[in-house]
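Supplementary Note 3. Input sequence used for the single-chain structure prediction.
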Amino acid sequence: MRILVSNDDGVEAAGLRALAEALQPLGEVTVVAPDREQSAASHSISLHRPLRIEELSPWGAVRRFAVDGTPTDAVYVGVNHLLRDRRPEVVASGINRGANLAMDVLYSGTVAAAMEGTVMGLPSFAISLVGRGEPRPPARDAAQRERAARQAGRSAHHSHRQAQLLGRGGPEIGPSRSRVLLDWR
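The predicted structure, written as discrete structure tokens, is reproduced below.
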């Protein structure tokens, strides 16, 4: 399985690395993410300037690219340019540090990255870390990583169906209290 991973917290975010590492056992993972924080970028795209793309040092077998644009730009560039000869089968976005609940999903760059994958006909999901106060670093949240890997597997398994966008918010305290935020088909 080929998986494109992005986010809105930037290409060096701990949650992005945690998600990429959690998905690596499922197949070929490529990170294409904004070169800096793009929280609340929503589904905006860069129209009036060229985008710069930089290949970064890999995280093990995970290739990484930084795009000086929005999360939507990153997914678009990843699918249509960097991976055009080996199109991803799933787009995963996150792990966002902080909740994307209720109306926040309209502003979230994390959700927008998954929405862009869905617009391109790819099963896509976004994961956010819901916590009280200052959340633990997502890299230490094993339950969240396990959920991400399971969701990627389900998304790839059902990729023959209509593309879907799934958003999950997982609390720090464990998987039993996670909830689905959106499920658009």
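Confidence is low (pLDDT under 50) at residues 171-185. The beta strands are 2-6, 28-34, 53-59, 62-67, 90-97, 124-130, 165-171, 179-184.
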